[in-house]
Each structure stands twice: as structure tokens, then as C-alpha cells.
Design a protein that fits this description.
- There is one protein chain.
- The chain has about 280 residues and is mostly beta strands.
- The protein is about 5% helix and about 50% strand.
- It is built from one helix and 24 strands.
- The strands form four sheets. Strands 1, 2, 3, 6, 7, 8, 9, 10, 11 and 24 form a ten-stranded antiparallel β-sheet that branches.
- β1 and β2 form a beta hairpin.
- The protein is globular.
- The protein starts with a strand and ends with a strand.
């Protein structure tokens, strides 16, 4: 018996049975074919992206549903429609991957004598089939001085990934007037450098325990600071990117091996890299 997990909730919670194994559908390339006067055939303009894809499930709910038909149908509809935008979608048929999916309905569940129901539900999915192995953090220690703590990360897919990198601040060695420098390098080439002041107008910019997030998929760089009274504050760090460098942001892992290095000045930290491997 298969199950669906959408937006963090399982179909098991609603007495749902997936009746038919879903088809395997890969995304279609975004390619434009153009006629050229005086030339046979067409030319293909490939913009390097893929279209969204549909994921369909034929489901049934019956005697194992937690309530009678109307209540069960309503609960199923609310579950499918509760998500905003693209939410995480998993199922037991491809347990090694997840997708980012949106559900727009309609949710038409047939009423079988008030005791059971059937429906076909369709999710609109982003083209990537993300590998769960790409969610396992890869630890990266900072290289300080002559100590080289570079590591090699291998992308075993055929597609370029955009990792999520989190940098955890352990100590700060800068004076109030100095900058803390964090540099990410690939095989000796600087990919991104941050020069963050320790203080601005007597207010700390960096503190021990802060987390710097480099989200290469959304091209966002920000700091998360834990507040003493509870909660967190978020600070945009994009203004501290050293644009005098010939950098290659967003950072990407091409297929094959990449030697990555984290180096710092006036600050002690380490990083966790979530590579976000994906296929089509």
C-alpha cells in the first residue's frame, strides 16, 4: 500500500489508499524551434531550463477513513489545499527523492454510497527530482593560516546543483574597527568573499552563535541571530559581499568532483554544506 506525504502530512492520516502506481514522468526541456529563411529544417534554441511536470495519484478512502464520507472528503480537501505555493511532496514509490509541488485542485471525490470515495489528484511539480542524499550535511572546517582543510565533494548526477551553505560563528577575533572575512574557494579560485564589520555605530553586527546562510538557489545571503528574549532576528548580508573580487556567485557544484575550501580572517567558524543533488 503506497502513501503520499505532502506539506509534512501523510495520506495515512486520512485513510487514503493509492490504488494505482503513479506513472514516471520526466520534465520537458524548454526548447524553441525557429525557422530560418533559406535554411532547411529549423534551429533549436535551448535555454537550459525545464518545464513543470504533473504527478498524478488515483486514491480511494473507505472503511479505514477516520470519519464518515463527507467529513473524510472535507479533511482530504483541506490537507491538499493547505499548502501555499510549492511544498514538499514525497511518496513511497520513490522513497529516495522528493519534489517541490503545488496543488490547485479541484478536489472531486466520488461518493460511493456514503461509505467510500475515489479521486484522481494532480500535483504540479517543479522539474527537479531532489535526492534525499543531497540533504545530508557535509561538514567543512575553516582553513586558517597554513592549515588547509579543503575537502572534495562529488556530484554524481548529470546536473549542476546550487547548495545551501550554513556558516556557524564560534568566536570573533576582530577589534571594533576591523572586518571579519569569510572566503569560499573552489580549487584555489575565490567564489565568494564576505567582509563583515564587527560593529557599526557601537552595535554588534556579528556575535558568537550567529549563523550565516548562503542560499545559492535563491541567491540570498543572510545572518540569523538568536535573541536573548527568544526568537530570532534576520540581517541581510548581501551588502558585505566583496564586489572587487571576480567571484562566481551563486556557487554551484558541477557534475564530478569539486575541491572546496573555507578560509577566514579575524573570525573562527565552520560550515555545513547541503549539496541539493537533483535529477530529472
Amino acid at each position: 500500500m503506497g502513501k503520499i506525504i505532502f506539506d509534512g502530512k501523510s495520506s495515512d492520516n486520512y485513510g487514503i489508499v493509492v490504488e494505482v502506481l503513479p506513472d514516471y514522468s520526466s520534465a520537458e526541456k524548454n526548447v524553441e524551434f525557429v525557422d530560418v529563411p533559406g535554411r532547411n529544417g529549423q534551429i533549436a534554441i535551448d535555454n537550459g531550463t525545464y518545464k513543470t511536470v504533473e504527478r498524478k495519484y488515483n486514491i480511494a478512502c473507505g472503511k479505514d477513513a477516520p470519519n464518515e464520507f463527507k467529513s473524510s472528503a472535507k479533511a482530504i480537501s483541506q490537507w491538499l489545499n493547505r499548502g501555499v505555493g510549492f511544498c514538499r511532496l514525497e511518496d513511497s514509490y520513490e522513497p529516495e527523492i522528493y519534489r517541490m509541488a503545488a496543488y490547485t485542485g479541484p478536489t472531486d471525490i466520488s461518493n460511493i454510497y456514503g461509505m467510500a470515495g475515489r479521486a484522481e489528484i494532480t500535483f504540479t511539480c517543479q522539474p527537479e527530482r531532489y535526492l534525499k542524499s543531497g540533504e545530508i550535511p557535509i561538514n567543512l572546517a575553516a582553513s586558517i593560516g597554513e592549515t588547509d582543510k579543503s575537502i572534495v565533494i562529488k556530484n554524481g548526477t548529470e546536473y549542476t546543483s546550487k547548495p545551501l551553505i550554513k556558516i556557524f560563528v564560534e568566536s570573533i577575533n576582530a577589534t571594533d574597527e576591523e572586518n571579519c572575512t569569510i572566503t569560499i574557494m573552489f580549487a584555489g579560485t575565490e567564489m565568494l568573499q564576505l567582509k563583515i564589520p564587527k560593529k557599526i555605530k557601537d552595535k554588534d553586527v556579528l556575535s558568537v552563535g550567529d549563523v550565516i546562510t548562503i542560499d545559492n538557489e535563491s541567491c540570498a545571503i543572510y545572518l540569523t541571530h538568536k535573541l536573548s528574549g527568544g526568537g530570532h532576528s534576520i540581517v541581510n548580508l548581501e551588502q558585505y559581499v566583496d564586489d572587487t573580487k571576480n567571484e562566481s556567485f551563486p556557487i554551484e557544484f558541477n557534475p564530478g568532483e569539486t575541491k572546496i575550501k573555507l578560509s577566514t580572517e579575524k573570525i573562527s567558524c565552520y560550515a555545513e554544506v547541503l549539496p541539493r543533488w537533483w535529477t530529472i
